[in-house]
Amino acid sequence: MVGGGRFDMARLVPRKLDRKLLRDLWATKMQAIAIAFVVAAGIAVHVVAAGMLDSLQETRRAYYDRYRFADVWAPVVRAPDRLLADIRDIPGVAAAETRVTSHVLFDIPGMDAPASGQAISLPDSGRPAVNHIHLSEGRLPRRGQRDEAVLLDAFARAHGIAVGDTVSLTLHGGRESLRIVGIALSPEHVYAVAPGQLVPDARLFGVVWMGREALAQAVDRDGAFTEAVVTLEPGYPEAAVTGALDRLLAPYGAPGAYGREQQISDAFISSEITQLSTMARVLPPIFLAVAAFLVNVVLTRLVAMERTEIGLLKAFGYHDGDVVWHYVKFAGAIGVLGLAIGLGLGTWLGRQMAVLYTEYYHFPFLIFRLEAGVYLSACLVTALAVGGGGALAAWRAARLDPAVAMRAPPPPDYSKSIGAGLTRWQMLDRQTRMVFRQILRWPGRSAFTLAGVSVSGGLLIGTLFFLDSVDVMIDVYFNSANRQDVSVSFVEPRSREAFHSLRRMPGVIEAEPVRQVAVRLRHGAAEERTALSGVPRGARLSRMVDLDNRSVEAPPGALVMSQDLADKLSIAAGDRIEVEVTEGRRPVFELPVSAVTTTLVGSGLQMEIGDLNRLLGEGRVLSGASLRVDAHETRALYARLKDTPGIAGVSLQSEAEDRFVELLDQSLGTSIIIYTGFAALIAIGVVYNSVRISFSEREHELAVLRVLGFTRGEVAYVLLGEIAILTLLALPVGALLGTGLAWGFSQAMSSDLFRLPFVISPRTYGYAAGVVLVIAISSALMIRSRLDKLDMVAVLKSGE
Amino acid sequence: MQDTRGQSSRDTACFRTRGLTKVYGSGASAVHALRGVDLEIPEGDLVVLLGPSGSGKSTLLNILGGLDRPTGGEFLFRGEDLTRASTRALTLYRRRHVGFVFQFYNLMPSLTARENVELVTEIAQNGLSAGEALELVGLEKRADHFPAELSGGEQQRVAIARAIAKRPEVMLCDEPTGALDSATGIRVLQALKTVNETLGATTIIITHNAGVADMAHRVITFSDGQVGNVRVNTERANPEDLAW
Ligand SMILES: Nc1ncnc2c1ncn2[C@@H]1O[C@H](COP(=O)(O)OP(=O)(O)OP(=O)(O)O)[C@@H](O)[C@H]1O
Ligand SMILES: [Mg+2]
């Protein structure tokens, strides 16, 4: 054993090459850290996105599960309680519950705008079999206590209502005063959205839960229900159950059962999660690819600078493999650092984001989850990008003959090219000519700097683009497609008389009637549920517009459809489509689609209101109206609306716009900011390295220039001038790349809720350019202080 | 001799040092590279500096050339005290008066021979043209070649052309023939001699080759950071006759 020990001893002694490795790492620590940042940014984006998304989906799933969130809703006008047994017997139904629901209008003291909402019954004993609520405070209403109610948490918070307070509201035409005994969260109202509204607003839409008996009596539904909610057996097709429910409930005025896809709150969350997951799918690979590319470029340059040393090592008798392995280890150390930072930062941020979204969605708990595969793929990509980059660069260097490697390669002779003409142009002062010469003599180096700076600039534009796109989307939706200030919807369709009385209300400048019916569209095998709106010809307030903001109207008897619906139904302009009205006598029509137009927000299906009335065989009735209002008289208008019976909801466009902006800021915005931050981090790592490597590559030459009597300023100009020119050249290239990237993102990211138009504002180009310039300038300033300390004597001791 | 070459009536010496010291580092690990150098080098002299390795020759030359600063003592160029001159003043001193030639040629690899010379003529006030300078070292035919395409000796001659192109008053050469064979070394020394004679530049050459001393006006032997011995040659040999 002692004899064998000698061999092991020799292995324990650190090899000289490893010591060189440590010294090299130490000497290039700033650069190594900067490269590690680039790696970390790529990895972190990947981990954040996956972690946040996994957790969000998992939390939502668990929430829905624990609170038995319904799979299918089947509203009716009035159906007898005894049907519950039949509903439970429908194949595929796991659990069923019936309940009474009703529109309510809240009267909140101190608030001009009317808040609408819903009253929902709770079983008088026990918990509902479907759609539990989560009491965050207080208790459930007691049996027999008719005035007790539980209030939706978000609404209570928005108005500062606490347990023990009294809330007054209009219920079934009568005034009621309810004592709040509990505050609750509900999986059905993660988002509280008023019917027919696009944007959730906690202030404007509330939910009260009351005892079944109390609510049924208040709305005249004794022994009856107005909605059945069911959960499905796992894997059972939803359509079979909705079909059975429709058949069972048709005699009771059922507009048609619908699944989660149509449940507004879930549709909202799903759409947002889809949006986030698209982002999480599209962005991280790009970040990873960009980071990998840039790390590759930077490592290649770092290794290329070691040519002489590689030549020496080989001259000493080291094998190519030793040399390559040496640089792979060098790159590996950087990669491990980057990976550690990226995984740590990503996991932490992913968790923070998940917490944020949990609060934002009012989930009662959070399940944080990150799959091992995410970590694994992060390691793999890093190994490939960093190790591959190091190996490739080292391999190229190692292949050289020692003698050749130890000598600087002669630069290609460009004396006869156009570039050379420029470098001899006497109008330029001599240093500027030197700068141009340098760039042209080493096109490879220049191209690397150019690529690094422009790609990181492009990435910034690509992420900032989202903000521009969302701005335009909001602007088009609110200022072009929906120009009304107030939307009013009635509980039931009303006659023309109701419209005239609306128009005569205080402050109303302009009014347009709207007739809206729930429909089911069929084309081939495809089927979609949506709302069909009838609007007057030449509508100025609520209308469909194309991408150029021009109004698109339906010719007599025809429909205009939004692109997303047309895609789902595979319909083109000119096709005919089957339209089943799922209200009243449920007539079925076949109608031509005259135009398909891209709407940025929501989907849309419109026809002329008179045509729609005629189709439905009704008089000139309307289900609501769009109003343009004098801002000075809104108070009076709101007061009148609150006192008007038969109004289901009132929504205020200006508030909706604010809410929508807020909503996007909180959900999408947070992600965008994080992605942009990482893009900036990549820019820092790359630009700093480009500048720093340019300096290293030329350090010797610059010191010689100082020896020859060039001043510090002149030497700085020669180096920084080169960096400045390359950076300035990189800006337009980066703008081009970023534009392409943004276009790709706009194509990849569209959901049911909205589509991102491809628009990039000058501001975005400006910001991206500004960030790149600031980083370049600060890197240059850091280099400048090194330039001033160039050790001329040391440089002269060594040849280059 | 000094009368014929001296240009200044105030101070006939080109360089004068008094008690010049240079200490690298501090404490126990301090290295005393110069331990009080008193020296006087007349205008227009060709001086050869000899001495064992590590004796401080390069350190002295770098200080005289304004690349480095002494730790103590005084150093005057044509009577002007440069001991505590600013960085900028030293830069201008190098730019206007000093031509350097080093053992490692330190040419710009991305510039041709001509361009390497032009680098200096562009910032000099009334220098030679690059062509003239290259002609003086016999390299006019290789003017458009890159350093990587020239031999070591040719590169060194380009370095000399670069140094003389500004018509320097002082030529400082640190082992200019250190990496060259005798024939090439002699060509280089001839070039230096020509420059010394035609331009009248005070020239200091560091060498390990004692034979080179025979071509000098003055031979300074250095040992252990001090001037050991100064010898003035009455008879000067031509470079081609030097014992290599
Ligand atoms: N930067 C430095 N730090 C520490 N010591 C130094 C430094 N530069 C030179 N020295 C030391 O100063 C002394 C003189 O060095 P110098 O280079 O002047 O010698 P030299 O006479 O030129 O030698 P050679 O003939 O080998 O070139 C040496 O002992 C050297 O080790
Ligand atoms: Mg020396």
What would your notes on this structure say?
The complex is a heterodimer of chains A (800) and B (244). The longest helix of chain A has 55 residues, at 653-707. Mean pLDDT of chain A is 83; it is low at 1-14. Chain A is an alpha+beta fold. Chain A has 23 helices and 20 strands. In chain B, 29% of the residues lie in helices and 26% in strands. In chain B, α7 (182-199) links the parallel β7 (170-174) and β8. Mean pLDDT of chain B is 85; it is low at 1-10. The A-B interface holds A 407-411, 413, 415, 430, 434, 437-438, 441-442, 700-701, 704-712, 714, 792-793, 795-800 and B 62, 67-68, 87-88, 91-92, 94-96, 98, 100, 102-106, 108-112, 115, 119-120, 122-123, 144, 146-149, 162, 174. Bound molecules: adenosine-5'-triphosphate and magnesium ion. Magnesium ion is lined by residues 57-58, 174 of chain B.
Topology, number of strands of chain B: 10
Q: Report Rg of chain A.
A: 34 Å
Number of domains of chain B: 1
Give the spatial strand order of the biggest sheet of chain B: 6-7-8-3-9-10
Task: Tell me the overall shape of chain B.
Answer: globular
Instruction: Please report the distance between the alpha carbons of the first and last residues of chain B.
Output: 28 Å
Helix percentage range of chain B: 25-40%
